[in-house]
Amino acid sequence: MATIEYVLGDITEQEVDVIVNAANSSLLGGGGVDGAIHRKGGPEILAECRKLRAGHYGGGLKTGQAVATTAGRLRARWVVHTVGPVWSATEDRSNLLADCHRNSLRVAADLGATTIAFPAISTGIYRWPVEDAAEIAHAAVEDAPLDLIRFVLFDQATYNAFARP
Ligand code: APR
Q1: Catalytic center residues
Q2: Which residue owns the Cα nearest ligand 1 atom 34?
Q3: What domains are defined for the chain?
Q4: Please, is 108 exposed, middle or buried when counting C-beta atoms within 10 Å of its C-beta (0-12, 13-18, 19+)?
Q5: How far is the CA of 145 from the centre of ligand 1 (A)?
Q6: How far is the CA of 122 from the centre of ligand 1 (A)?
Q7: CB-ligand 1 contact for 22 (6 Å cutoff)
Q8: Residue 96: predicted pLDDT
Q9: Domain named Macro: which ranges (predicted)?
Q10: CB 71 within 8 A of CB 13
Q11: Segment 52-72, tens digit of pLDDT
């Protein structure tokens, strides 16, 4: 049974086996978490992402999928990149957001990781309402096959939404 914890902070500073990146399907970087991880982790991460794009992920990473690369200069051992769904008021994409968490956990467990840090996937540029994202994330990580799951929230409002009792 995994310990679940909530931290107000920067995911790139976390000392865990796996840091999850809220990427986009190109795997070639972006803003937000994606930008921070590539900036702090260094060019090796992008180099491995490019290899993935040249190989099995030629068409890009699909929403909900997850794939691992080196963590470069970060304190973690791996970055698991996942593509969150963009919020839609007309289409229920909740299962895709849950998939991001479930697939990231599966990839991390397959690597032998025992500790993982998640950002609040899809709640930034992809505009997913934070309260709803927190519900989905909590449910998706129950019974996870790891020892520690840490949600790293970048602002107080998001922290409050995730860390509610
Ligand atoms: N550490 C932890 N959380 C962070 C950090 C950080 N260094 N930087 C941003 N965040 C938070 C945001 O405040 C938000 O709560 O991560 C959450 C997710 O926001 P985004 O990074 O915008 O991710 P998302 O909404 O999933 O949008 C993904 O944005 O950066 C691009 O390439 C990315 O196209 C993709 C899209």
Answers
A1: 34
A2: 24
A3: 3-163 (3.40.220.10)
A4: buried
A5: 25
A6: 7
A7: yes
A8: 98
A9: 1-165
A10: no
A11: 999 999 999 999 999 999 999
